[in-house]
Amino acid sequence: MSKLKFLKSHEWYSAENNTVGISDFAQHELGDIVFVELPEVGENVEAGVAFGNVESVKAVSEIYSPVSGVVTEVNEDLQSAPELINQDAYAAWMIKVKVSSVSEELISSADYDELTKR
Amino acid sequence: MLRTPFYSKMLAAGGKMVEFTGYELPVQFESTGIITEHKAVREKAGLFDVSHMGEIYLRGKDAFASIQNLITNDITTLKDGGARYSLLPNAEGGVVDDILVYRFNAEEYLLVVNAANTQKDAAWIEARLLGDTQFENASPTTAQLALQGPLAIEIVKQFISPADIPEKNYTFKTLTLEGVKIILSRTGYTGEDGFEFYCPNAYAERLFDLLMEYGRPFGMIPAGLGSRDTLRMEAVMPLYGHEMNEETLCHELGLDFAIKMNKESFIGKDALLKNPPRYQRMGIKMIDRGIAREHCPIFNDEGRQIGHVTSGTHSPTLGQAVGMIRVEKDFAASTLWVEVRNKKLKAGIVPLPFYKRNK
Questions:
Q1: What is the ipTM of this complex?
Q2: What is the span of the domain harbouring residue A62?
Q3: Residue A117 domain flag
């Protein structure tokens, strides 16, 4: 997890796997996640811009992209089992991206932990 | 922000506090969450702090006549120890609130009103009392807990004698528990069997501890506003400010069981006679993937907007997105389109309620 980079809006990016997801803090704050809306393979995502939505029982939240590029893979498991995000937010990647650039707003895992410390 | 007498207890139990109608109340609990709390109520039992609800007492020789004039339902057949659901209409036939009327005796009644409306209702009611009717707003000194779920009865039996347990739905008993006078009512807002306890603020924490002590062995857990909402949604119980407001007419809600047009007179009756319903309340299940939320516009097959979603959520029992909608009265197709984030998603009309318990 220490290899991950984070946006302050609670998304993570793994440079190793080119995957994007939301943080454990985010899943905990959202509560039971019941629906995820993700882009399709081939669509472009832009750093700092919303690419999808995650819905808990009570609320809808936008998911912002930590990177710019083209979506190469979407985690289809989340369509039928969005609760996987609650179970392990760092295993439950949402999209894989052919990255052209990364957001300048990304912070380290340690800084993100500091930011979300209770 | 206001705090109920259970605030410390809720916090200690891991309550994630949010603002609701001016009160700090738990939306869910740290170690459980909305779906777990929802399932606990459907399968075992859950305990809710509902102290934000308002309690208004009306007493006197003309209390009965005052209430008959104020509500759409008819309490002529309401017996001592009985509770009845009703709408509180305005002069135009719109809804001031939806309430429960409890009858202690011919000259003493309790009206339980929605938290958000307590001040409004108190003023509305007090200004319209007939003859000899005394008014008391007991909301600030009354605490309320709702114990809901199929095992609620077993839990209550642990510490309340059988003679003091109301047997039927929509009945209540006044009893003394550890020297304190409380009301135990077989009512709720979840679609399950259950009880609502009304007690003085000073006894609130003790009552909470008692219920936790006797409830825990049965799998009872504290539950928050989040599951209260999903539970009432599945049982299609309307919520003021969502399904109804001052502009929705009483007879547009599918609550005709609570509107007695053959009653001689009541506030708003003339307006309801004059104005036929323009809208109806219906239930939908999403066919396309997505969750319809409150305010989402609804379109028919021809693409014309015919209404909107009044409440929408993911139903934990059905594992599916459901919603209550307000659409034009003559709408009769079996499918429609809900606009969610600029996309039109297909939904199907389904018979209500979404969930009905086995009795």
A1: 0.87
A2: 5-101
A3: no
Q: Which of A35, A37, A79 sits opposite B314 (nearest CB)?
A: A35
CATH number of the domain within which A24 lies: 2.40.50.100
* Contact between B293 and A79 using a beta-carbon 8 Å cutoff: no
Cβ of A35 and B291 within 8 Å?
yes
Number of other CB atoms surrounding residue A1 within 10 Å: 12
Which of B226, B290, B341 lies at the smallest CB-CB distance from A58?
B226
> Total domain count for chain A?
1
A11 in any annotated domain: yes
* Mean pLDDT calculated for residue range B203-222: 98
Does residue A56 sit within a domain?
A: yes
What is the pLDDT at residue A117? 87
Indicate yes or no: CB of B314 within 8 angstroms of CB of A37.
no
pLDDT at B230 over 80: yes
Of the residues B19, B20, B35, B315, the best mutation for testing chain A's interface (the one with the most A CB atoms within 10 Å of its CB) is B35
**Residue A32 to residue A55: CA distance in whole angstroms:** 9
Give the pLDDT confidence score for residue A118 in this predicted structure. Answer: 66
Strands B46-49 and B221-222: parallel
Interchain CB distance below 8 Å, A57 and B314: yes
Q: How confident is the model at residue B359 (pLDDT cuts 50, 70, 90)?
A: confident
Nearest CA in chain A to B230: A57
Q: What is the mean pLDDT of each run of 10 residues along chain A (118 residues)?
A: 88 97 96 96 98 94 98 96 97 98 96 90
Looking at the domain assignment, is residue A71 inside a domain? yes
For B75-114, letters b (16+ CB in 10 Å) and e give beebeebbbbbbbbbbebbbbbbbbbbbbbeebbbbbbbb
